[in-house]
Each structure stands twice: as structure tokens, then as C-alpha cells.
Design goal:
With about 140 residues, the chain is mostly helical. It has six helices and no strands.
Amino acid sequence: MEINYGSILLWFFIAYLIAVLVTSIHNMINIFIFHMKFDPKNILKCEAYEKTRPFHALYDIVIFPFCAYFCLQSQTNPDAGTAFIIGLIWLTISMVSDWLIWVAIKTPARHTYKEFYIDYQPWLALCYLVTLFSPLVTFLIVR
């Protein structure tokens, strides 16, 4: 089993960036069309963002399998084991990226540990499950 790690990273970051972009667009729609409350100093605690949370996993259910398909196409003779390894790699990168972007680095979008890992449940867990299993489910459907 030969694994193309460059492709795994590329397709993960494409999926991750699309998911963040779609969520941001949803947030802007809530602010500018539905006139929900927004505080630029506290972006993630405002009504506009809070209303997007239940949709995060739904966006991931569409985005990550699509990218998993192209990632699997770039692998040499992928099997279910390869697909699961891709999911594990994606989950690991996602957890580290989330920690860096949403918790560790001081930005207006920063969460505390409690806000991100406790208050963001069950949405965070669902997003991580989608990230983990998207390559395997995509492989099983397409093969």
C-alpha cells in the first residue's frame, strides 16, 4: 500500500478551507440579510455565529466526502485500510488545526478551551466524526 501524503494534505486543506469559507458566508448572511446581532470584538459569541453551529457538520458531510473522492483517486490502488488511514490523518490535522486556529492563537475568533471543547458539543464531535469517516464511507460507496 503506497500512500500519497502530499495529496492527503492538499485535499484536507481544500476541504477545511471550503468548510470555513461556507461557514463564514453563512455567518455574513445571518448578519446582513437576517440582521442578527454581531460584535466584531467577540465574533464567536454573537447570535449570527451561534446560529451557524448546527450547520457545521452538515457542511462537512457534503464537503469532506467530495474532497475524499479526489484524494482517493490520487492514491495508488486504494483500499479500505488506505481510506481509514486518510481519515485518521485528516482527523489529526483537523484537531491540531482547530486548536491552533480557534484556541491557541489570540484573534477575535479565539475560544477558551471550555467554549471550544465543551460548549461547542455536539457539533464539534460530529464534525470530527465526519472528518474521520468521510474517506472510508466515500471509498465504500464508490468502489
